[in-house]
Amino acid sequence: MQYTLQKLSELLGLEYTGNGSIVITHACGLEKIGPGGVAYLTNPKEMANLPAPTGIFDGRRRDLDDVEVSPEAAIIVSPDITSSKHNLLISDDPMAHHVEVTLLLHEKTTVSCRVHEDAFIGKGVLIGHNVTIDPKAVIYDNVSIGDNTVIRSGTVVMEKSVIGKNCLIHPNVTIREHTLIGNNVILHPGVVLGADGYGFFQRDGLNLKIPQIGQVVIEDDVEIGSCTTIDRARFCQTIIRKGCKIDNLVHIAHNVDLGEHSLVTAQSGIAGSTVIGHHLMMGGQSGIRDNLKIGNNVTLLARTLITSKTDDNAIVAGMPSRPLEVWRKIQALINGLDSLFERIKKVERSVAKMMK
Length: 356
Description:
356 residues; alpha/beta; flat; 10-stranded parallel sheet; UDP N-Acetylglucosamine Acyltransferase, domain 1; 4 helices; 14% helix; Udp-n-acetylmuramoylalanyl-d-glutamate--2,6- Diaminopimelate Ligase, Chain: A, domain 1; 3 domains
C-alpha cells in the first residue's frame, strides 16, 4: 500500500508539516531513509544518525534544517522537533505511530479463511468463523479453534487442545494434547508446546520416567519465537501469562508460572516449578534455577543465573546473580587482578630478599 503524507496524517490523526502530496511507500529506519520512506525520531540526539553536512547535533538544537533528508521522505517526530524544509508528522509517541504506519504500508500475508482440502481434520473438531487451515496441517480429534485464527502448513495440533480467536500459528508448530491457548497469540515456526517435562527418578542405577500428565496454558496476547519449547506440567499447569513476549530458542520447563508482560530473550532458560512475577526482563543466555520465587519487575542482564529467591524490582547480573552494583564492583576487581598479581609478586620478592 501507499499513501500521500496528507492521507497518512488523516489516518493517524496527526498534524503534518511540509509537502502533503508526497507519496509514502514504506517504513524504514533513520539510517536508510530515502524517497518514499517514513522513519521516526523520538529523541533529538538521534539526529546524529542522519547525514549532516554541517556537523553533528550538539545536544541543544531542536530543528532538522541542517540534516539532509530526501524531499520525498517523511519523519515522525515529537512536538519539540521542528523543521522549515522537511516533511514531518507530529506525534506525542513517534515510535507507536511508526508501528501503525508500518502496518498500514506493509500488507500482511494473505489468508484463505477456509480449511484446505489437503489438511487433516479429526473427529469432533470445532472450527470458528473465517479460520484458515493450510495444506498438510494436522488437527487431531476434539480440538477447538476460535474465529479468525490462522494455522499454517505442517502444524500439528493434538487432541483436546483449545486455540482462541485471532491467533497466528506459523508453519511446523507442534501443540501437544490438552494445551490451552488464548486469543491473539502468535507462535513462530518450530515452537513446541506441551512436550513432556524433564521428570525422571533413579532406581537400581536406572533412569525411570515420571509421567507428565499436566498441560500448558498460554494466555492472551502472548508471542513465542521460533524453536522455543514450553513443557507440560507434571500434574497441573505450566502457565505463560497475558502479554508475555518470548524470543527464539528459549526453554521453559514444567510447572513454571511466568508472570504477565514478561520479556524473555534468546537462549534463556527457566527451570521447573519456578514462579515469576509480572514484567520479568531476561537478557540473552540467562537462566533461573528451579523451585524459586521471583518478584515483580525483576531484570536479568545477559548471561545472568538466578540461584535464589529474588525480591521485587531487583536488577541482577553475574553467575550466580548478584545485585547490579555489587556485580559491577566485582567486575572492576577482576579487571584489576593482573596488576594486583604483579604487586604481590614484587612484595614476595622484596620479602624474600629481606629474609636472606
